[in-house]
Amino acid sequence: MFRCGIAYPRCKWIVPLLLLFAIIFDIIAIAATSGWVEDKDAKSDYASMWDHCRGRNDNWECKSLMENSWAQAVAALMIIGLLILIVAFIVSILAMCTVNVGLMIFTGGLLILVVILQIIALIIYPVKFNELIFEGDYFYTWAYGFGWGATILSLGCAILFCCLPQYEDELNDNAKIKYFYSSS
């Protein structure tokens, strides 16, 4: 005799934990001083969300990207997305502790908003940054990847928060257990 399906009571702490990881990934992406873009050998050119640096050896010349309106928009969208993500994390803890269906759907809506804002920012950045550079091969690296990681985690959690209200009884541990038997 065995029990099939998801252990829904575990979702009470797993889903907010995934949101915490998304917050950490977002903070890493936003706070990184390099790692959004690097040249092929990572020796003469690199950029973050905030600065673009060129040079050789110890002679680096850095220029703020915040002089460009597109970079300001990217920074604003990422920071607003992070702030909404933090609010969604707090609401998710309340929703999962009390198994409040309305709060779960509200959290899912907040997370969809975060995903939209961050996808826009993460698409604008490479499109506009590539207009600044004309030569060489460039790679979008680890910090940019953390931004996408946070966005993907947020999307997954949004889907879960929109689907979990259908399983309110399972989350409260009030559902009738269904067993599947095999006859041999």
* Proportion of helical residues: 55-70%
Topology as a string of helices (H) and strands (E): EHEEEEHHEHHE
Strand order of the largest sheet: 5-4-3-2-6
Please report the distance between the alpha carbons of the first and last residues: 12 Å
Class inferred from helices and paired strands: alpha+beta
What fraction strand? Answer: 5-15%
Q: Supply the number of helical segments.
A: 5
Question: Low-confidence runs (pLDDT<50, min 5 residues)?
Answer: none
Largest sheet: 5 strands, antiparallel
How would you sum up this structure, described in words?
The structure is a single chain. The protein is of the alpha+beta class. The protein has helices spanning 8-31, 69-98, 101-132, 142-163, 168-171; strands spanning 2-3, 37-39, 45-47, 51-56, 59-64, 138-140, 179-180. The strands form 2 sheets. It has a 5-stranded antiparallel β-sheet with strand order 5-4-3-2-6. Strands 1-7 form a two-stranded antiparallel sheet. Strand 4 and strand 5 form a beta hairpin. Helix 1 packs antiparallel against helix 2 (69-98). The chain is elongated and about 70 Å long.
Quick summary:
Helix content is 61%, strand content 14%.
Layout of strands and helices, then pairs:
Elements: E1 2-3, H1 8-31, E2 37-39, E3 45-47, E4 51-56, E5 59-64, H2 69-98, H3 101-132, E6 138-140, H4 142-163, H5 168-171, E7 179-180
Antiparallel strand pairs: 1-7, 2-3, 2-6, 3-4, 4-5
Helix pairs in contact: 1-2, 1-4, 2-3, 3-4
